Each structure stands twice: as C-alpha cells, then as structure tokens.
Amino acid sequence: MNQLIITIICVLVNIAASAQASKGIYRIPYANGTQVRIWQDHITHAGDEPEIDMAGVGNGPFRIVAAEDGEIKFIQDSFSATTNGNPCNNNYVWIAHPNGEWTKYSHFTQNSVTGNAGLSVGDQVCAGTFLGFEDDVGCANGEHLHFEVGIPFDLNDPITAGGFIKGNEFIPIICNIAGNVFVQGTTDTAGPCGSCLSTLNNTNGTFNNQQYDIDIASVQVSAGGHVVFNAGSTGAYRAGRRVVLTSGFHAKRGSSFYAMIKDCNSSPGNPNCGANSKVLAIDNQ
Q: Which of 57, 79, 82, 172 has its Cβ near the most Cβ atoms within 10 Å?
C-alpha cells in the first residue's frame, strides 16, 4: 500500500489538465433492456466539454433513469418546444451523488419528471429510478438524451440560470460497455452495473491526444512493461485491492491519469437502495 501511494503522488505531479475520467462508475441512463445508440461522445460533442448525446433505438417513448444513487438537486420540466438557443429552454434534471460528482439529464418531455415520474427536488433516488421520458425539448436536433458528469465549483451557486454547470466536467465511466467509455456510433443495452473481471493486466501501449485507457477490476489492475500516456490522453485504473504501476509506466505532462483503490462497482450510494428496497420507482422493465 505504501509503495502504491508513493507512486501515485509521483504520477500526479507530472500531469496537467486534459479531459479527466469520472471517479464514479455509472450505468447507461435508460430503462433496463433499452438499446441505446451513441450520437456524440466526449470527443465529438459540440463544445469543449466531455458531454454525451444518446438515443433509444426502436419505438419509444424511452424511459430515462438515474445513472447512480443520489439526491435530486434541480428539476426543470416546464418547457415544451424545440429551440435554437438564446435561450435554450432545456428541460433537465441534476442529481448529486455520494462520490461528489453530479450528473445531468436533458431534453425531457414536458412535465414527465414532476408528473409521470412524480419527482421533486430533494428526493433520494437509486440507480435505475425512472426520471422522465426522452424528448427533443430545448436545444435539440431530434429526440435524445444529453448526459454529462461534473463537479460544481461552488455548491451554493452550482449552475447557471439555464441549467449549465459552473464547474469541471469529466468523461463518464460507464459499466458493462466495451472500454467503459461511450463511443460515437456504438449501440449498447442498458442495465444495472454487474460484476467485473477479477484482474486486468495491460499490454504495452502508448496513448496520444484524445486517446484513453480505462481499466477496472475487482482485485488488481497492472500496467504493462511499457505504458505511456502522452499529452491530451486520459487514463484511469481502478481495482479493489491493488493497482500496480511498473517502472515502464509514464503519465506525461498534459495527460490526465489517476489510480483508485475501490471495488469495481462499489458506491457509498443511498442506504435505502439495497436489493430489496423500494425508494421511489426503480425501473425494472
């Protein structure tokens, strides 16, 4: 343990700000069994922030669900029209999670959060709780969900009047998909986070601008003999017991890398969100 802590400190001294991966692990925020197509990922989405656009595949309406346990901080679902901005008039929900991160869900059908889902600010929700219906309300080009993960700079003044976060945003780490990161053009099936590999041993690799390597295991993640994160790349290693960084591991200035000792799908969570709990309406369809 002492060797790991010393190694991580040395790595963090040498990195600078690029797109950092989230500390939390999140489910696909659609009802269980929904096929979800990624329209834009953290690289291709308009703007400078690592945000995601996705949509249900097939016949809707599609049910949006909470990506992790948390507390609802803001709801806006009074708007009904698609706009071109100035202002956007998006319908949205912000949820604060026990890991300190917040998630945002945008473009809901009017009144589907407060009406259909029956939610209010201050409600405690579980991963999978129904939030509302996918739609194209606000600045939207077709029915879809806009999803993002961030941390406000000031909890007393976390978002703008239009619902945009005043803080840092992160590449969402997602369970049960290849590479643990959303990729434009891929389709995955929504469902609860499950188990992960016991150990994960990386092969040699060099990661350059906008490339990433997110590795999660229940026991151990090990770097290969020569793993290099160059400027603009992103890395995250998370394991329940050990993260092994070899002498051939380098996270260079301008990259973003962190290592974490934590079970692959553990979260402080809502204590009322156990397997037999009934907090609001967890979607099991």
A: 172
Q: Domain span at residue 229?
A: 195-261
177 plus 254 within the same structural domain: no
Tens of pLDDT, residues 92-142: 999 999 999 999 999 999 999 999 999 999 999 999 999 999 999 998 989
* DSSP assignments along 129-182, one per residue: BEEEE-B--EE-SSSBEEEEEEEES-TTS-B-TTS-BSEEEEEEEETTSGGGS-
**What pLDDT, on the 0 to 100 scale, is given for residue 266?**
61
- State the pairing for strand pair 220-222/199-201: parallel
One domain, residues 114 and 143: yes
At 283 the pLDDT is: 44
Residue 268 lies in a domain: no
pLDDT in tens, 173-222: 999 999 999 999 999 999 999 888 899 887 778 999 999 999 999 999 99
* CA atoms of 109 and 91, how far apart (whole Å): 7
| Number of Cβ atoms within 10 Å of the Cβ of 89 | 18
Pairing relationship of beta strands 256-261 and 234-239 according to DSSP bridges = parallel
Residue 8 domain flag: no
pLDDT value for 46? 87
Do 250 and 131 reside in the same domain of the chain? no
Pairing relationship of beta strands 145-152 and 167-174 according to DSSP bridges: antiparallel
For residues 251 and 136, membership in a common domain is answered with no
Q: Which of 174, 189, 204 is the last residue of a domain?
A: 189
Question: In the chain, how many domains are there?
Answer: 2
